[in-house]
Design a protein that fits this description.
308 residues; alpha/beta; Rossmann fold; 7-stranded parallel sheet; 4-stranded mixed sheet; 12 helices; 11 strands; globular
C-alpha cells in the first residue's frame, strides 16, 4: 500500500507509539496501552472489555478506525469517562461495491465457472440476471444507502427496511420502505447492512430464511453474528434459498472445514470488503481527526462517553 499520508501527518503532530502486530494476550495489550491517554484502535485489533478499560486509568479517549463497536464495552467506557469515537461512512463505497461484487459472483456462478473453465471445460447453463430483479436492503446506513444506489444503477428494483425509517431519504434513494416480512418474501436478493448490537444478534434465523424465495440470494457484508449461522447453513443445504455471498462470519478467521466452505452455492471472502487503499486512508485520517477534535474540546462521531 505504501506510506500513509495520514500517518505521516500524525507523526508531525504528536508523539506516537505504533504497533503493527496483534497482541498475543492481555498482558501484552496492557504493556502497550496501559499508560495511554489516547488510543487509535485499527479494525477491531483489540477488544476493550470493562477489565481492559479498568486497567487503563489514564485513558481519556478511544478512537476506533472503523464503524463497528461490538468489540468495545460502550457502557463501561461511559462509566469510566472514556470518550469513544468511530469513523462512519468511510468504507461505504468500498463495502457497497463488495456487496455488488458478491451479488454478481453468486448470481452468475463466477467462482465455479472460472474453476472448471481453467480445467479445460467449456460450461453452459443459465446464470441469473440482476437487472429487473428486486433487491431487499436491510439497514439504510451509509453502506446500505450506497448499495441501494448502485443496485438502482444496474436496473434493480430496491425495497428496504431500516430501524429508523425516513420517507424523505427513501424518496431521495428511489427505494420503497416495506415491513421486514414483506422484504423477505418478495426480494430476489437480500443484502444485510445492520450494525451488530444486542438488538441485532441473531436477527436472521430459520424463520426469516424460511420466508425467502427458494431462488433468493442472501448477501452479508455486515457482521456474521447478525445471522444464525446454523440456520443459514441449513437453508442453503436444503435449498430453502438458492445461494449466499458472505464476507463475515460468527467466528473469524473462518475455521478450516467449516460447513460454509463445503457448500457449492456459497461465495466467501475473508472480511475484506472494506480493505481498499482509499477506504483505509480515509478511515485512518478520520480516526486521527477525531483525536484532535477531542483535544480541541469539540469531539465528533462520538458513540460513547461523557459527550455521547
Amino acid at each position: 500500500m505504501g506510506p500513509s499520508e495520514a500517518y505521516q501527518n500524525l507523526l508531525g503532530r504528536a508523539e506516537v507509539s505504533y504497533f503493527d502486530s496483534l497482541p498475543a494476550n492481555r498482558d501484552e495489550v496492557l504493556s502497550r496501552i496501559g499508560d495511554a491517554e489516547l488510543i487509535i484502535n485499527i479494525r477491531s485489533s483489540v477488544a476493550f472489555s470493562d477489565d481492559i478499560l479498568k486497567a487503563c486509568p489514564k485513558l481519556k479517549m478511544l478512537s476506533l478506525w472503523g464503524t463497528g463497536t461490538d468489540h468495545v464495552d460502550l457502557g463501561a467506557a461511559a462509566r469510566r469517562g472514556v470518550t469513544v469515537t468511530n469513523t462512519p461512512g468511510v468504507s461505504a463505497y468500498a463495502m457497497a461495491e463488495h456487496a455488488l461484487a458478491l451479488m454478481l459472483a453468486v448470481a452468475r456462478n463466477i467462482p465455479q465457472i472460472d474453476a472448471v473453465t481453467k480445467q479445460g471445460e467449456w460450461p453452459r447453463g443459465f446464470i441469473t440476471q440482476l437487472h429487473g430483479k428486486t433487491l431487499g436492503v436491510i439497514g439504510l446506513g451509509a453502506i446500505g444507502r450506497q448499495t441501494a444506489r448502485i443496485a438502482r444503477g444496474i436496473g434493480m428494483n430496491v425495497i428496504a427496511w431500516t430501524m429508523h425509517p425516513s420517507p424523505k431519504l427513501a424518496q431521495e434513494l428511489g427505494v420503497t420502505l416495506v415491513e421486514l416480512d414483506e422484504l423477505y418474501r418478495t426480494s430476489d436478493v437480500v443484502s444485510l447492512h445492520l450494525r451488530l448490537s444486542p438488538d441485532t444478534t441473531g436477527f436472521l434465523g430459520a424463520r426469516e430464511f424460511g420466508l425467502m424465495k427458494p431462488t433468493a440470494l442472501f448477501i452479508n457484508t455486515a457482521r456474521g453474528a447478525i445471522t444464525d449461522e446454523k440456520a443459514l447453513v441449513e437453508a442453503l443445504e436444503k435449498k430453502q434459498i438458492a445461494a449466499a455471498g458472505l464476507d463475515v462470519f460468527q467466528t473469524e478467521p473462518l475455521p478450516k472445514g467449516h460447513p460454509l466452505t463445503r457448500l457449492p452455492n456459497v461465495v466467501i471472502t475473508p472480511h475484506s470488503g472494506g480493505i481498499t487503499k482509499e477506504a483505509l486512508e480515509a478511515g485512518l485520517q478520520l480516526s486521527i481527526d477525531n483525536v484532535f477534535a477531542f483535544l480541541e474540546g469539540k469531539p465528533q462521531h462520538v458513540v460513547a462517553g461523557p459527550a455521547a
